[in-house]
Amino acid sequence: MELVKNILIFYEDQDWPFNDEVIIEGYDENTIQFHLELLVEAELLYCYVPPLKHPDLIKDKLGAQLTWNRPPIAKPTRMTWEGYEFIANAKNDTIWSQVMKVAGGFSVSVISQCLTAMAIFYAQTHGVIPR
């Protein structure tokens, strides 16, 4: 989940149009690419994914198809409204650490809901919004 947070912070700080190259210290290109695609599925980030023209397949010894052999291709175009909300809540280290203690192993959607709930609670206890 730290990588998800770091990717969104990376793009929040980028000017539009986004830079094609995502560099997050401690993570290789394939791991970042996989998480970019997950962020698209979670509707936190929009990416352009060009169609494959001649996909090569990786096959096991018996000839069964295992996976597509393709280079990283998702090109982020912009963050979604939900992406901005997620990162706004996740950037508060107190809220992030408390949510990760309780819900760190859950899905992005559950963590996003927990971050929102914790941010509302935090704002209420600090008098920012009424209870």
What can you see in these coordinates?
There is one protein chain. By secondary structure, the protein is an alpha+beta fold. It has one domain (2-125): Orthogonal Bundle (Arc Repressor Mutant, subunit A), CATH 1.10.10. The chain has five helices and four strands. The chain has helices spanning 2-12, 29-41, 81-90, 93-103, 108-125; strands at 45-48, 56-59, 65-69, 75-79. The strands form two sheets. It has a two-stranded antiparallel sheet with strand order 1-4. A two-stranded antiparallel sheet has the order 2-3. Strand 2 and strand 3 (65-69) form a beta hairpin. The radius of gyration is 18 Å and the shape is elongated. The model has no long low-confidence stretch (mean pLDDT 78).
Please give a handful of descriptors for the protein shown.
131 residues; Arc Repressor Mutant, subunit A; two-stranded antiparallel sheet; 5 helices; 4 strands
| Broad structural category | alpha+beta
Separation of the first and last Cα atoms: 30 Å
Lateral arrangement of strands in the main beta sheet: 1-4
- From the coordinates shown, what is the CATH architecture? Orthogonal Bundle
Q: Look at the structure and give the mean pLDDT.
A: 78
Counted by DSSP, the helix tally is 5
Q: How does the major sheet shape up?
A: 2 strands, antiparallel
CATH fold annotation? Arc Repressor Mutant, subunit A
For the secondary structure, the number of strands is 4
Topology pattern, helix = H, strand = E: HHEEEEHHH
Which range does the strand content fall in?
5-15%
